[in-house]
Amino acid sequence: METRAFQKIYTKLTQITKATCSLNATGVGYDELAMVNGRLAQVVKIIGNTVTLQVFGGTEGIPTNAEVTFLGKAPTLKVSDDLAGRFFNAYGEPIDGGPAVEGEEREIGGPSVNPVRRKQPSELIATGIAGIDLNNTLVSGQKIPFFADPDQPFNQVMAMVALRAKTDKIILGGMGLTNDDYLFYKNVFDNAGALDRIISFVNTTENPPVERLLVPDMALTAAEYFAVDKNQSVLVLLTDMTLYADALSIVSNRMDQIPSKDSMPGSLYSDLAKIYEKAVQFPAGGSITIIAVTTLSGGDITHAIPDNTGYITEGQLFLRRDTDIGKVIVDPFRSLSRLKQLVIGKKTREDHPQVMNAAVRLFADAANAKTKLENGFDLTDYDERSLNFAKDYSNKLLAIDVNIDIDEMLNTGWNLFNKHFKPEEVGIKKELADKYWPKE
C-alpha cells in the first residue's frame, strides 16, 4: 500500500468474482466509490477489514495486484436548473455532447421523506391517455407501475406520458434501453420541443448491467432538487425495473448471498421500496410522482419482481393488445389506481365516477357476451349492442393512442352510451343523465 495525495492506494485483491472484488482496507464507508484498475466501483459489503466492491464495468481482465483507490465519497450528482433538457449516463455525465453541468454536488440515494412532512396527495396528473385519466386517474405523489409483456410498446407509452403529462419536470431513468429505444426517446423529445422540461439518465444495453443500479437514484436526486428546492411537480419515469432487479441479482449472487424466490436477492423488497417511497406530495406544493415499467415474462405477475412491486405501489396499469381492435389498450379489468378516488369528481367533472363505473360495467357485459358467443349460445339484442359498445369504447377511449382531455373523455363516454343504449340501461343517476345525456 502507498499513499498519494491523501489517497490510500491498495494493490492486493483477495477475491475476484464476475461482478465484485474484495480486499483488506480500513477507513472505508458503505456506498463509497473506488477506482479498481481504472474502472469505477462501489463498496457493497464490509465485514471487519474485508471490503467488497461491485465493479460497474465487470471484473474481466482485472489482475489480483490491480491498483485500488478509494475516492472518499458516494456517487453524487451536480444539481441546478441546467439539468433540464439534457441526457446523462448512469454516473450523471453528459452523453448528449453538451457541456458538464455546474451546480451543487449532492449524494444520490439518500433517505426518503419523513411521513410527517408529507401531505395527502390531492392533485390530478393528467396524461391524455383515457385508459389512465378516465379509469385509473393518477394523483401527484403516487407511485404506480405499468405491468407489460416485453413486446408491448411501453417505451412509446412512457414517451407519450412524458409529452402530455401536466407537470413542471419529467425525469426519465432508462435502464437497459436498446440503442433504438434511446434514440426513440431522444427524437420524440427533440421533435416535440419538450426538451426544456425533460431530463434523462440512460443506461443502454451496451453499458455494463451493474451501472443500472445507479440510474433510479440519479433520477430521484434530480427529482428531489426540483420538488424540494423549486417546489415543482416532478414526474419520474423508470423503465425497466425488471432489468434493474436483474442487475441487483447479478451482484448479490456473486457475493454468495443465498438467493430467494426467482433467484432474486432477499433484499429485493427493500431495494424496490427505497426507490418507490421517494414518491411524495409536499405541503408547499412540490411533488414527486413515479411511474415505472415492470416487464413480465409470459404475463407472470407472481414472479418476485412484480409481486414485491405490487405490495409497495399504489395500484398498477396493465397494457394488453385488444384482439378485437388490434390496438394496445390499458386493460380496465386488471388496472387499478388506488388513489383515484381522491380526485375523480372532486378535481374533475361531477359525472366522472358515474361515467367511469358505467362504462366498465358495460365493458364487462360485453366480455360475458363474448364468452356466450365462443360457447355457441345465442346472443340477445342487448348482448349485440354491448359488443359494439366495447369495440367503440376500446377504440375511442382505452387505446393508448387516444390523446384528449378529461372533459372530452367524459363527453365521448356519454356519446357512446347514447349510441348503443337507452338511459335506463346505463344505470347512471337520473339527475346526471338529465344534465349530460346528449340531446338529439
Compile the SSE list and pairings.
Blueprint: E1 2-4, E2 7-10, E3 15-16, E4 20-24, E5 33-36, E6 39-47, E7 50-55, E8 68-70, E9 76-79, E10 87-88, E11 104-107, E12 124-125, H1 130-133, E13 138-139, E14 143-148, H2 154-164, E15 169-177, H3 179-191, E16 198-204, H4 215-229, E17 233-239, H5 241-254, H6 268-276, E18 280-281, E19 287-295, H7 304-312, E20 315-322, E21 327-330, E22 336-337, H8 352-374, H9 381-398, H10 406-420, H11 423-426, H12 430-436
Parallel strand pairs: 10-16, 14-19, 14-20, 15-16, 15-17, 17-19
Antiparallel strand pairs: 1-2, 2-8, 3-4, 4-7, 5-6, 5-8, 6-7, 9-11, 12-13, 18-19, 20-21, 20-22
Helix pairs in contact: 2-3, 6-7, 8-9, 8-10, 9-10
Describe the structure in your own words.
Helix content is 32%, strand content 24%. The chain is an alpha/beta fold and 440 residues long. It folds into three domains: 2-70, Elongation Factor Tu (Ef-tu), domain 3 (Beta Barrel); 76-342, 3-Layer(aba) Sandwich (Rossmann fold), CATH 3.40.50; 352-436, no CATH class. Helix 3 (179-191) links the parallel strand 15 (169-177) and strand 16. Helix 2 (154-164) packs parallel to helix 3 (179-191) and helix 8 packs across helix 10 (406-420). The relative contact order is 0.12. The mean pLDDT is 91.
